[in-house]
Amino acid sequence: MSSKKAMKQAQKQAYSKHRSNIVNNRFATKKRNFVKSKKKS
After folding, report:
1. CA distance 40 to 26
2. DSSP for 1-27?
3. What is the Cα Rg of the chain in Å?
C-alpha cells in the first residue's frame, strides 16, 4: 500500500470515529438530561 493511500484511509477512519463520537455524545447528554429531569419531578 502506498503512503498516500494509507494516509487517505487513516483520515477517513479518524473522521468516521469523530462523527460517531459527536452522535454518541449528543444522545448521551439527552439521556443524562432525561434522567436528571425524571429525578426532579
Report:
1. 22
2. --HHHHHHHHHHHHHHHHHHHHHHHHH
3. 18
**Residue 38: is its pLDDT beyond 90?**
no
Rounded CA-CA distance 12/26 in Å is 21
Which residue do the cell numbers 455524545 mark?
A: 25
- Which three three-digit cell numbers place residue 9? 484511509
pTM for the predicted model, two decimal places: 0.44
Angle at 7 between CA 26 and CA 14, to 5 degrees: 10
Sign (positive/negative) of CA torsion 20, 23, 26, 28? negative
